[in-house]
Amino acid sequence: MEEFYHALKVSSTACTGCTHCMTVCPTQAIRIHHRLATINGAACVDCGMCLKTCPRRAIFVEQDDFNRIFHFRYRVILLPTVVFGQFAEEVSEEQIFAELHAMGFTHVIETDQSVDILTDAMRAYMQKNRPLRPFISAFCPAVVRLIQVRFPSLIGHVIPLKQALDLSALYARQKLKEQGVPEEEIGVFYVTPCAAKIAAIKSPVGEEVSPVDGVINMDFIYNKIKMGLTRRDHQPPPPTSGQGYLSPTSIAWTLSEGEASSFDGRCLAIDEIHNVIDILEKLENEEITDIDFIELRACDHSCAGGALSTNNRFLVIERLRARMKASATRQYPHDQEIERHAAYLKAQSPLPGKIVPRSIEKLDENRSVAMEKMQKINRIMEIIPRIDCGACGAPSCRTLARDVVQGKAKLSQCAFIQKTLVQEGLMTPEEAIEIAENTWGKNRFSNNKQETSCK
Amino acid sequence: MEFTYHIEGGDFSRAGAASSEVKKILKQLNIDLAVIKRVVVALYEAEVNVVAHAHEGIMKITLAPDSIEAVIADKGPGIPDIALAMQEGYSTASPRVREMGFGAGMGLPNIKKNCDRLEIESTVNAGTTVKMTTFFTG
Fold this sequence. Notes:
The complex is a heterodimer.
Chain A: E1 8-10, H1 20-24, E2 30-33, E3 36-39, H2 49-53, E4 59-61, E5 74-79, H3 93-102, E6 107-110, H4 115-128, E7 135-136, H5 141-150, H6 164-178, E8 186-192, H7 195-202, E9 214-217, H8 218-232, H9 248-252, E10 267-271, H10 273-284, E11 293-297, H11 313-328, H12 337-340, H13 342-348, H14 367-383, H15 397-405, H16 415-423, H17 429-440, H18 449-454
Parallel strand pairs in A: 5-6, 5-8, 7-11, 8-9, 10-11
Antiparallel strand pairs in A: 1-4, 2-3
Helix pairs in contact in A: 3-8, 14-15
Chain B: E1 2-8, H1 17-28, H2 33-53, E2 56-64, E3 67-75, H3 82-85, H4 95-99, H5 107-113, E4 117-123, E5 127-135
Antiparallel strand pairs in B: 1-2, 2-3, 3-5, 4-5
Helix pairs in contact in B: 1-2, 2-5
């Protein structure tokens, strides 16, 4: 099976194998080997929980080289609204636009410009496919991947449409092509608030290629804008054009309730990955029925709480709410350029491919073998302590048992089992140390440990 | 392979916990998703029946390579007329139970729809035993 692309990487120099990430990972994708957190690519859904919890900033989001933008003559930057929320109120939208032009972008387009068109497409899909209720939004790529790996039976409920990001990228390309710009001279770059969006662009689900050429981390662009503003030292920015009108619903789209408040019927908005898992369990058991639409976001407070958001998420929301208020007082301009492309974008909106199940739960393809493995797990569970201490390098006793039957770990990694074996003379203390060193690193248990950890 | 779960009568806050555990097991055994769904729906109905009507009960799951058998046995009022209880919409649930969204009279008919073999034995003022079997396909 083809591997997911993952933007989350572990720095082998900064990581000390402290287990924080391992315990919070919602898909149990992390193990500690040789004092280093290792992420299982088949299970990781790029939710970013590990990055947010890492006390040493050892987990980071890999990004494209910024200078790649200069490979293109026409350089489009796609901005999600949360970018504006990174800045204090005194930094105006015009200033931010101006800085983006100053750093080399020829066109600045807000990702959420296509939200009204997407909302119409989603509404039409839901009306046409009512038996597939409850509908699950495909907004958050981490949630879509979570459904693929842990809740494949719910895939049919996911609305198989492209997101605002893709539609705005297509719009930007189409607009430039109409002006006679050759396709290969257009570079579209997206500013991402999280790792999941990057993964979705690099290996899209249900799409062959993404219309986006590259991704820029939001914290990186924040620093670059901030630097530009500082250097300009309150001089008025050069005038720029291209800032379109955004409706209040478009501004709110990436925030919690952004989607749920746009549709009729019973709509739920759920954010934070554990809350999402909880509701997906209930949906799968059919404990919750009679719901029309469910908005699911992996981050606490949705994209305002994205792993690459530098500002406090409540302040991000405050700024966007202020913008919504200002937008609500403005007359809706019917001469919006994107409206002219609405028919084209709607036609482009269905995902061409299928969202495929990639279950990580099954113990084996063969049912009888899977059953034997489960019996082995149950036997192991009877002898291990069930305290989920993590000293074996796995997040819980059950995951260690699973790893053991899958041949990925040894039962002797369990600190309790080691003690028992040593006491009964079945293992020497040296052997026990060696096993522990495989997980926690060489010389972790020697006397000069103090020195090595204090440098 | 066998698994046993205890079901507490009247504890609606935990209703569905046992069925959810069984679902987690079936997902690990690479069983067809549609089959898992049927099994879990049937088990959930049976579990809620115990919570809503009985004092307590157990759910005993026996897994074979080609089938799952579930026996849900409770100590409770029993069912005086099983044929009547099998009719959709027939319910003896109290108003309190209905307020919580249970007791629509779909329980037993829904179980029958979602399993391959169903046997119900009941003694009034003693309890009910529901035995359901579902075969795995593929």
